[in-house]
Amino acid sequence: MGGRSSVVLLHLLLVLVSFAAVDAGHDYGKALSKSILFFEAQRSGYLPRNQRVSWRANSGLMDGKTSGVDLVGGYYDAGDNVKFGLPMAFTITMMSWSISEYGKQMAGSGELGHAMEAVKWGTDYLIKAHPEPNVLYGEVGDGNTDHYCWQRPEDMTTSRQAYRIDSSHPGSDLAGETVAAMASASIVFRHSDPAYSSLLISHAKQLFEFADKYRGKYDSSIRVAQKYYQSFSGYADELLWAAAWLYQATNDNYYLDYLSNNGDALGGTGWAMTEFGWDVKYAGAQVLASKFLLQGKAGHHSSVLERYQQKADYFMCSCLGKGTRNVQRTPGGLLFRQRWNNLQFVTSASFLLTVYSDYLASSGRNVQCASGTVTPSELLSFAKSQVDYILGDNPRATSYMVGYGSTYPQQVHHRASSIVSFKVNPSFVSCRGGYQTWFGRKASDPNLLDGAIVGGPDAYDNFADERDNYEQTEPATYNNAPLLGVLARLSGGNGGLNQLLPVVVPAPEVPVKKEKPNPLPSSAPVSKASPFTVVQTVTTSWDAKGKTYYRYSTIVTNKSSKTAKNINVSISKLYGPIWGLSKAGNGYSFPSWLSSLPAGKSFEFIYIHSASPADIWVSEYTLV
């Protein structure tokens, strides 16, 4: 089993701070491709025609049937054949967060489609696992019977009993993490599949109500999970995490109110964390709350969100060794928390360091640590150092990503990769026969588990590449998931992006419209019957050098029943920088990655100047 864990307003923003692509000796693009490919080796269910990990075959085809529900699909969590709901949902959340922040970089490397497929493989399963508003299936199979056997997923004879939570047997932590997974994934599919995105939001809202109303730890209801994925931190962190993701996905102030009003009671503003992972979500919620604050969305919740941000700063300082309670490091410089699957904490911390560095850079802010000021570039550089260690820059010169570099683990603690492929030799591998024939082999795995991040070295940078050394050689989906975003960022840079800038958001419920001037002549001029609304809102202001500067959020909404393309936005009386649009002739166009605006959808961009709102209108467009 994978390792267990225990438990401002915006500053003056006149010049967008951007990082250049990070120089490195590693091929981060190649590492990204491999890290996504690993998820195909973890698939359960009917494998698709475009399956690239060819040594795997269909498995778990009767999952859920004895309980009267279809639970075919999803992911095996690590080197076994159990589907554990809590780490699976966290995996999907972190993949989705990676895509929502760094999808453009993934697209540039040709991996966005693969990453989205990896997310959907998980969310399709989560939708099946939520057949009723107050019912969620949280496990298929159990670790005890599974660990007694060493079998390929295609052969498994172990129990496939399904376990669930409901109103009489609650699990707020499991339900809350599933909310986060579905809400974050809805952002991923908002453009490409709006109907699927809406479906995910509907499930997420139902599950949030369930999690909040019927409170309890999931492992008190699904007791077979206690030995493997016990929720040491309880469910308070998942409730805040879930609310933060629902606010990020919907822009519904109900969830921001929940995050803020419950920050003290549920520990979000109190717990100062030095870890982040499938069990403890506080640091993730604190980083998201900081993002909302830096975006100018806090409103009357500013003081609460500032306390969240203080705790996010604490996490960053502790990772860099500049706080009051710092994370241990190995002599080779790797963050170290525990011997059992330590790299899960390294990849998750690296992601928070990376995305927080971009949030701060977009707002012109640094982190004030006990040992001094830390700049955004320092956060990113340290995250890079952790990734470089994983990829081979360590005392053993070993890559801990299988298949990357010249030296990497050969005897991975993983049933499917360690036994000859079903497609090569379909002869049945029995429960105990797998141990006798395959587990004890002192030879390389017959199947390459390409891209898998194993548990990693101990506190002294030592590592034993042995199949029975599960603490160090077992991979896990949640080791890889956060790394997707970091690798995409290191491979593609930030592309001049402002990480605080939303891509597409719902139109405000009560928009305050500003009268627009007559449009300039164009091939498709906007008339009084224009299908677009343009709503401008002051999100924050500040005084500097005798002037008052305003940050304007501008939302363009397609009110027609058709998709709009070739959109050109005209702006006059603009006296400051603008983010989110590209200069095109005498006007502006949407970013290259947003080729159209579907019916009913909105696009947001931001500008700053020391004057009244600029005049903004859609001057050209095509409806299809």
**First-to-last CA distance:** 51 Å
Number of strands: 16
Structural class, by secondary structure, is alpha+beta
Main beta-sheet strand count, sense and barrel state: 5 strands, antiparallel
**Chain-averaged pLDDT:** 89
Q: Gyration radius, to the nearest Å?
A: 25 Å
Number of helices: 17
Helix content: 25-40%
Give the overall form: globular
In percent terms, what proportion of residues is strand? 5-15%
Unreliable runs: 2-24, 503-528
Task: Describe the overall structure.
- With 624 residues, the chain is α+β, with helices and mostly antiparallel strands.
- The chain is built from 17 helices and 16 strands.
- The strands form five sheets. Strands 10, 12, 13, 14 and 16 form a five-stranded antiparallel sheet that branches. Strands 8-9-15-11 form a four-stranded antiparallel sheet, with no helix packed on it.
- A hairpin with a 2-residue loop joins strand 6 and strand 7.
- The longest helix has 24 residues, at 85-108.
- It is globular and about 75 Å long.
- The N and C termini lie far apart (51 Å).
- Residues 2-24 and 503-528 have low confidence and may be disordered.
